[in-house]
Amino acid sequence: MKKRILITGGAGFIGSHLCKRLLDEGNEVISLDNYFTGSKDNIAPLLSNPYFEAIRHDVTMPYFIEVDEIYNLACPASPIHYQFNAIKTVKTSVMGAINMLGLAKRLNIKILQASTSEVYGDPIIHPQTESYWGNVNPIGIRSCYDEGKRCAETLFMDYHRMNDVQIKIIRIFNTYGPNMHPNDGRVVSNFIIQALNNQDITLYGDGSQTRSFQYVDDLVEGMIKMMGSPNDTIGPINMGNPNEFSIRELAERVIALTGSKSKIIFLPLPSDDPKQRKPDIDLAKSALNWEPKIQLEEGLKKTIAYFKSIT
Ligand code: NAD
Ligand code: UDP
Fold it and tell me: In the chain, what percentage of residues exceed pLDDT 90?
């Protein structure tokens, strides 16, 4: 059955893939975005579809519309963008959640929150399970994002407990793929662009810190499964690829796959940079019958092809 679906942050990296997938499945999709880090280029191919609407709006302000489901993605996700205006980042997470939860409450509809592995901070438990409460510095340069997202989870749970709002919370681990903002400083896009231009690869710290990289198509599949899950499946549920790599290994793989002449250089590690990150996805496997299918080499090849096509 065709649904009318609201996606905040629909012009961003993940949002644009989600808009496309939900349109392809025959739904009507409305993207709500202030274009801070998103781009009209990401959604330009969708504009010819009469069932797609792109609305410029800031989620820190309420919005009134009639829809069947909400995916709440609006929030800058890369450290340089979320630190650009840290106060605005907190407002986007917290006031955006309040405004979208209010909308879901009035309409009595399901709402999914794009939370993050950053709620675990610099984790002491490895791999991270959903029951782990995390190790977040509340006053550091990353806290506008981490604590904003933690507060959004709190709001989702309290709207659920107090107002019976049907919520779904997913904790997304590092995700990459086409439509990533070329200048947002995230490691996969940085390394690919540097390698394609034979520039130095900027490794922060000694490169021994780890991340687990998920290709965007796997995430989108998981998000849709989560939205379609029974009402008592509210999460939080981790969504990520458990294959863990050091950042140095990532640099070496990107150099090899691009055939680049780039050299690795070492720069200072930003403060509060988590040392390790790997999702435990047992809950996603059992509750959603979901697990990622695209491994790093295949995903990197697709992402390299994308960045080649836009440069
Ligand atoms: P992105 O920056 O590409 O997308 C975010 C979108 O939100 C952009 O289109 C931006 O313009 C929009 N936006 C920002 N502030 C807004 C506001 N006040 N009002 C309306 N729109 C606003 O980032 P992304 O990687 O696509 O991330 C999407 C969501 O997934 C974010 O909530 C992010 O926290 C979460 N997430 C992403 C990752 C990842 O690895 N990409 C990991 C964990 C969580
Ligand atoms: N990183 C790096 N070089 C870069 C960009 C990032 O070495 O040019 C490192 C960064 O310090 C971190 C990891 O790569 O340890 C992932 O960074 P990203 O900003 O992509 O995501 P996050 O830190 O939020 O997981």
Answer: 97
CB 190 near ligand 2, within 6 Å? yes
What's the pTM? 0.97
- Whether 149 shows a pLDDT value over 90: the answer reads yes
28 close to ligand 1 (CB < 6 Angstrom): no
Peptide bond between residue 127 and the one before it cis (omega within 30 degrees of 0):
yes
The catalytic residue positions are 145
Is ipTM > 0.90 here?
A: yes
Q: Which residue among 75, 141, 247 is best mutated to probe the pocket of ligand 2, counting the most ligand atoms within 8 A of its Cβ?
A: 247
SS3 46: helix
Q: At what angle do helices 296-310 and 187-196 cross, to 10 degrees?
A: 60
Tell whether omega for the bond before 270 is within 30 degrees of 0, i.e. cis. no
CB atoms within 10 A of CB 298: 11
Separation CA 237–CA 294 (nearest Å): 19
Ligand nearest the Cα atom of residue 241:
1
Q: How many CB atoms lie within 10 A of CB 102?
A: 16
Mean pLDDT, range 8-35, rounded to an integer: 98
Nearest atom (ligand 1) to Cα of 78: 2
State the distance from the centre of ligand 1 to the C-alpha of 110, rounded, in angstroms: 20
**Average pLDDT taken over every residue of the chain:** 97
20 pLDDT higher than 90: yes
Q: Quick check: CB of 74 below 6 Å from ligand 1?
A: yes
pLDDT band (50, 70, 90) for residue 92 = very high
